[in-house]
Amino acid sequence: MVYSxxxxxxxxxNARGMILATNQPINFLSSVDHSTGMIIDKxxxxxxxxxxxxxxxxxxxxxxxxxxxxxxxxxxxxxSPLGIICTSKTDITTxxxxxxxxxxxxxxxxxxxxxxxxxxxxxxxxGNSGVLQIKRI
Length: 137
Known about the structure:
By secondary structure, the chain is an alpha/beta fold. The chain contains 2 helices and 7 strands. 40% of the residues are buried.
């Protein structure tokens, strides 16, 4: 089964990788280890998961605007997500971080909904036309 969802393009580009999804916001400055890309916040449902080579699906970032540089550090260290989808709103931290790190970023339109899925789901970002495809593998 393949789902295609319309999104607003924030940072153009294409990406393809396994989806790492959460309904919780992420603080890129204090919740992510910038050298490994692992979520280290013990109160986050993705604690222990790695961002590297994933398509991150999450509502928005919280915390300091320095989180933008944290996203850039993830990219510089080779442990960033391949692409990011904001499901609620695109905050300035995520937008500027993805822009300086050249990570494709889309914002899900409010009339679009991510389907429920478990594991082994691939996300394909077309950051030129604003489409996210979700494919069960």
